[in-house]
Amino acid sequence: MKEITCIVCPRGCRMQAAEENGVITVVGNSCKRGYDFAVSELTDPKRTVCSTVRTAFPDVPVLPVRVSGEIPKARIFDVMRQIGAVCVKVRLGRGDTVIENVLDLGVDVIATSDILIENGKAGGNI
Amino acid sequence: MTNDRYDVIVIGGGPAGLAAAVSAHDNDARVLLIEREARLGGILKQCIHDGFGLLRFGEKLSGPEYAERYIDMFRARDIPALTLTFVTKIVKTEQGFEVHAVNRQGISVHYAHALVLATGCRERTAKQVFIHGTRPSGVFTAGTAQHFVNLLGEMPAKKCVILGSGDIGLIMARRLTLEGARVLGVYEAKPTPSGLTRNLQQCLYDYDIPLHLSHTVTRVFGVDRLEGVEISEVDENMKPIPGTQTRLDCDALILSVGLIPENELAESLGVEIDPKTKGPYCDGQCMTGVPGVFSCGNALHVNDLVDYVSENAAAAGKAAALYTPAPQKYVPLHADGSFLYIVPQRLDLNRDNTKVAVYFRSGGDFNKTRLSVTADGREVFAKKYAFLRPPEMEKLELDFGAFGLTEESDIRFALQLQAEKEREA
Questions:
Q1: Looking at the domain A50-121, which fold is it?
Q2: Which CA distances in Å does B195 have to A12, B125, B391?
């Protein structure tokens, strides 16, 4: 049996999950998403990664980014290395792709702020 | 010197101020928002992690994304905003309020019928937790470290210790680890963690960062730069136990030791502050003890979810837009000792005869608890909780209009541990 704290929502349900003969039972969850999370934790744990990428613009030295969907927990630092290698040279906006299909994981790294565009409009003075 | 008149002036352009301004505008008020920083969005600008907006938008957004959604709503309404503008003084007049402000254009005065104070909160600092030793660089609040990493792109630490298990400290433990720093551990003086359970999981345990409860930092070493900290175990009164000291070498100490609502402006107006929330006493419309002055978001009480801040601020903005001077008919909401606090602390029967959102935190970790609300000894509401923890704020919606309240009503909130109740029966 494994103790799992659900990270899907702020409730943070404390669950117990057990696997027997390929069947996973979960107790302590309050909803279906909790059950799914517990199953995923036992079989293929996934997480999201949020970070920043460097930019070529002195007014905005870093741009916040995140992955567009979950990635395997074991690949977090691999994805961080890809994010660390990027330098944004155009004024991207919120939702724009920074790295397409990062490491073939089926998700993109996307910008999560319009700050480069906003500052571009203001002449880079903010 | 410029002068202008508004129905509502909102002070603060973070998530609370933005939601309050949008809501006041949508309730037909002429609104001005004043923000001291260059950009709207408040602290969310640097909260690049995700988890925001699950309640409000049904999506897991990062802080900038959540803030910018509100900035978009704010701009779509063409609400005027003064940024890089600092409010220096507010004067209450017979007609309303005079808001004195200063910015690069000089000094200006703006007039409002009602005010919404959305001034947020600030972090408790090293000075406030009495750490002894020299004053080397390398001691940061978690928010300052977050500002360095997420906005300036600078690493404030290679090897660090985090004092306090507040959410921002946990978030920074993960963030610094992702960026290549070594986080030696999170030390918490209390016997229970301060942050959300899910943050303990996804920020500490996921990265094998140890959490040491009932431990604190008692000394810092280093002259120009921090070279190490002394850790001591503490007793049940959070007093360091002599002889338990150990030294850890590190180049940064990051403090996540609590947030305090920022209410200097409120206090200058004579607004009475609740020692439990450290925010103003307010009624169900978020109006403080000074008629026409409304408070919301983290200035009212420190929230753990921005979704609740937006919701509470929208209620305050609407109430400010609809505000007409009228006598108050206050009835207090009494919470028993098992609560850390409840907000609002009172109702104004002239206005709160409808659905009111009540926010509360329990005073300790309670399993299987029944919350009971009584009016004049008669139970008017009850709800069961599987568990309550002080770091996790709870929200209720109560229709006080249905309870037949008068100014003499005695309204009490109580938490009953289920096990005890069964024993009594």
A1: CPE0013-like fold (3.10.530)
A2: 11, 18, 6
Check if A29 contacts B (Cβ < 8 Å). no
pLDDT at B143 exceeding the cut of 50: yes
pLDDT band for position B419 (50/70/90)? Answer: low
CA atoms of B219 and B233, how far apart (whole Å): 13
B204: distance to nearest CA of chain A, Å?
Answer: 12
- Helix, strand, or coil here: A3? strand
Q: What are phi and psi of B21, to 5 degrees?
A: -65, -45
Contact A50 B196 (CB under 8 A): no
The owner of tokens 């305050």 is B316
Q: Which residues of B touch A96 (CB under 8 A)?
A: none
* Helices H / strands E in chain A, number of each: 3, 10
* Residue B200 touches chain A, beta carbons under 8 Å: yes
Q: Is the pLDDT of residue B351 over 50?
A: yes
| B51 and chain A in contact, CB less than 8 A | yes
The domain locations on chain A are 2-43, 50-121
- Which pLDDT score is estimated for B423? 45
- B129, pLDDT greater than 70: no
- Closest CA in chain A for residue B61: A112
Strand order across the beta sheet in which B394-399 lies: B339-343, B355-362, B394-399
Q: Assess whether pLDDT exceeds 60 at residue B2.
A: no
pLDDT > 60? residue B1: no
Mean per-residue pLDDT of chain B: 94
Rounded CA gap, B71 and B77, in Å? 10
Residue B372 in tokens:
């009971």
Q: Is the ipTM of this complex over 0.95?
A: no
Mean pLDDT of B142-166: 97
Q: What angle do CA B273, B275, B276 make, to 5 degrees?
A: 120
Do residues B275 and B263 lie in contact, with contact meaning Cβ atoms separated by under 8 Å? no
Q: Rounded to a whole number, what is the distance in Å from the CA of B245 to chain A's nearest CA?
A: 32
- pLDDT tens by residue, B206-249: 999 999 999 999 999 999 999 999 999 999 999 999 999 999 99
Ranges of each domain in chain B:
1-122+259-325, 125-257, 327-425
CATH class of the domain comprising B327-425:
mainly beta
Chain A touched by B225 (CB under 8 Å):
no
Which CATH number among 3.50.50.60, 1.20.1250.20, 3.40.50.720, 3.30.70.270 corresponds to the domain B1-122+259-325?
Answer: 3.50.50.60
Query: How far is CA B210 from its chain centroid?
Result: 26
Which runs of E-coded beta strand occur in B175-324?
Answer: 182-188, 211-213, 215-221, 228-233, 246-249, 252-255, 259-261, 293-295
- Among B217, B31, B53, B41, residue whose Cα is nearest residue B139: B217
In the three-class reduction of DSSP (H, G, I as helix; E, B as strand; rest coil), residue B319 is classed as helix
**CATH no., domain B125-257:** 3.50.50.60
DSSP assignment letter at B408:
T
Of B38, B54, B206, the CB nearest to A73: B206
